Each structure stands twice: as C-alpha cells, then as structure tokens.
C-alpha cells in the first residue's frame, strides 16, 4: 500500500498520472536549492520593429488574412497561413475539390499524407506578449482561435486542431513578435489520445470526470493552487512532468474549447494572464510554451468525459538519458515548493 504524505519531500517519490497512466519521479534532492533552478535575471532581447515580418503580414507575402478582428483595416489580431507550414491543404486539380489525406503502407509501416492546415495568429503590438495585452485584446485572441477552430468542424478530412504558443527562443520561437500557431492535422496526436483514453477509462470506472476530481482535490488541499477566480482555476499538478508546470481549467465542465462562452473565456484569460505575469516576475522572465488540450474534431458525442484546459510549461529542465530511455520524467522540485515560489 502506498503511503500518501502531505509534507514536503526530502526523498524521491514515484507518482502515477491518473489520466495518462504515466509515472514521473519527484526528486527534490537533485536540486541543491529550489531557487537554483531559476535562471539569473537577464534582460530579454527584443528584436527591432524594422524588418519584422509580422508588423504588416500582407506586405511580407503572408497573403490575405483568413480572419481579422475587429476588421482587416484596423486589425488587432489576425490569422494568416504560415509561409513555412508543417501541413498543407490539397485540392485535386482535375476536379478542383478538397481531397483528404490518404493512408497507405510502406513495408510494415503506415504512412498518412501530411495534409492539413498550419496557421499563424498574429497580434498587432510588437512588444506586448499575451501577458501584457489588455483583457479585451487577450479575449479577442482566444475568440479568433475559437472561430478558426469552428471552420474545421465540418471537414471530415481533419481529426485534431492543436493551438499553442512558443515564447522565447528556448521555447522554439524564431521570431520575437508575439504570435501563436494553429496546426490542424488528419490524425489525433498520441499525447492527446492517451489523455482521452485515460479520461474515458476513469469515467467508466467512477462515473466522474477525472479532471473535475483533480480540481476538487486541489481545492481541498490548497497547497498547489496558484490562482482562482469565479470561472477558472490554476494549479501546479501533484504529478508534474516539469518544474513549475501549470494547468488552467475552466471550473464548469466542458469537453470542447470551441463551445466555451465569451464569459468563460474571460475567466480563463484572466487566469492565464495572471500566471504568465507570475512566471515573468518569479522565474525571471523565463521562456515558456502554452497549449490548449481539447477534444478532437470528429465524433464529439464520444468525449463528454473530457475537460478542456490549458497547460503552461516554463523551459527550465532538459530531458536527459534516463528520461529519454524510460519515458519517465524527473522533476527536481516538489510541486508544493514550486507553488510557494510562484505565488
């Protein structure tokens, strides 16, 4: 029988994620002091506006905006096709119609054509990332993502839409100007599949949303909650894959990001901006990624058990031999301690 301790750890502990089933290791003794994980303060290098390809996307051959809010002339946020896409749509030139990706075998391997969409969401202000947008502008960003997402719902060729943000070079951003990406592909990514499967299995066994159970437990514990408002909650997971990993959940159960009301988006935006500011202040403006996990585009009636959310991962640790060889991540700070530092 496992002994559950509510005290801060002094020895390593294996913890099993109740959604994915993955094991992780919390090993605080590998870091001399928790604050040693945080980089020394250094000024973020801001690229000049001159020469930035996102200052006027239409002049830098990004094409006409797919969506632009509040309008094309006075845009504050717009969506354009990525000039260097991972996936591209494809039409049969003979009949001029959209064609789905085909699946075929090469020897023992299955291969699917890389057909889909790769969009950029670009905000107007060169120097304001998501944390520093006005509330109205930040909600507009999530709203335009929602509206683009809904454009894919009737396309039977597509399976999943991934929405994410890379802030800083260590997080994968090659351009300073704040932007976000939407990649829509013909398969459901494996990490999402594991989450969906684990959520479904938990519901079948306990008749409860596994994420709602996590939220209730965190609210009772209080030790890892970073921020909470009327409609959203942020906490560092008890099973954290990375130091200072954060999860943002709408409090009201909802399986689909695209179904979130504007009121709920406001609560989520408030929570996301609050914790991004905390990362900037407490973790010395470290680079980070955030992404939305939601249900797939197809067969929506299957995913009533899932709970859409946003995950934020500051770029602190690097996976080495053990992690790569076993798939077990080592987190070198107790999530309870990480929460105390971040609050």
Explain how this protein is built.
This protein has a ten-stranded antiparallel beta sheet with strand order 3-4-9-11-10-15-16-14-13-12, sandwiched between helices. A three-stranded mixed beta sheet has the order 1-2-17. Helix content is 23%, strand content 23%. A hairpin with a 6-residue loop joins β1 and β2 (23-26). It has 343 residues and is an alpha+beta fold. The two termini are 33 Å apart. The chain has two domains: 16-43 and 189-342, HIT family, subunit A (2-Layer Sandwich); 57-185, HIT family, subunit A (2-Layer Sandwich).
Secondary structure topology:
Elements (H helix, E strand, L loop, with lengths): L12 E4 L6 E4 L40 E3 L7 E5 L9 E2 L4 E2 L4 E4 L2 E4 L4 E7 L11 H16 L9 E8 L11 E7 L4 H17 L3 H12 L3 E4 L3 E4 L10 E5 L11 H21 L5 E6 L15 E6 L6 H6 L2 E3 L3 H8 L1
Parallel strand pairs: 2-17
Antiparallel strand pairs: 1-2, 3-4, 4-9, 5-6, 7-8, 9-11, 10-11, 10-15, 12-13, 13-14, 14-16, 15-16
Helix pairs in contact: 1-4
């Amino acid at each position: 029988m496992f002994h559950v301790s509510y005290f801060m750890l002094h020895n390593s502990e294996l913890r099993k994620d109740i959604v994915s089933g993955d094991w992780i290791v919390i090993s605080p003794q590998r870091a001399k002091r928790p604050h040693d994980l945080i980089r020394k303060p250094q000024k973020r290098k801001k690229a000049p506006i001159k020469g930035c390809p996102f200052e006027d996307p239409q002049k830098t051959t990004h094409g006409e905006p797919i969506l632009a809010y509040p309008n094309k002339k006075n845009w504050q946020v717009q969506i354009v096709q990525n000039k260097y896409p991972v996936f591209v749509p494809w039409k049969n030139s003979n009949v001029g119609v959209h064609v789905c990706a085909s699946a075929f075998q090469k020897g023992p391997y299955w291969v699917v054509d890389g057909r889909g969409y790769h969009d950029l969401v670009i905000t107007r202000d060169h120097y304001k990332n998501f944390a520093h947008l006005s509330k109205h502008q930040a909600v507009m960003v999530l709203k335009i993502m929602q509206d683009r997402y809904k454009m894919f719902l009737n396309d039977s060729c597509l399976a999943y839409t991934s929405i994410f943000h890379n802030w800083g070079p260590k997080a994968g951003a090659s351009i300073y100007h704040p932007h976000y990406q939407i990649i829509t592909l013909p398969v459901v990514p494996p990490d999402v599949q594991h989450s969906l499967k684990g959520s479904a299995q938990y519901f079948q066994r306990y008749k409860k949303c596994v994420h709602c159970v996590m939220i209730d437990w965190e609210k009772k514990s209080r030790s890892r909650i970073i921020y909470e408002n009327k409609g959203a909650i942020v906490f560092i997971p008890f099973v954290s894959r990375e130091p200072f990993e954060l999860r943002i959940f709408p409090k009201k159960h909802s399986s689909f990001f695209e179904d979130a009301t504007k009121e709920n988006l406001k609560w989520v935006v408030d929570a996301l901006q609050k914790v991004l500011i905390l990362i900037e202040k407490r973790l010395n403006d470290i680079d980070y990624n955030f992404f939305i996990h939601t249900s797939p585009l197809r067969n929506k009636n299957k995913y009533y058990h899932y709970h859409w959310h946003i995950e934020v991962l500051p770029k602190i640790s690097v996976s080495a031999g053990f992690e790569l060889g076993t798939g077990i991540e080592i987190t070198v700070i107790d999530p309870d301690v990480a929460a105390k530092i971040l609050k």
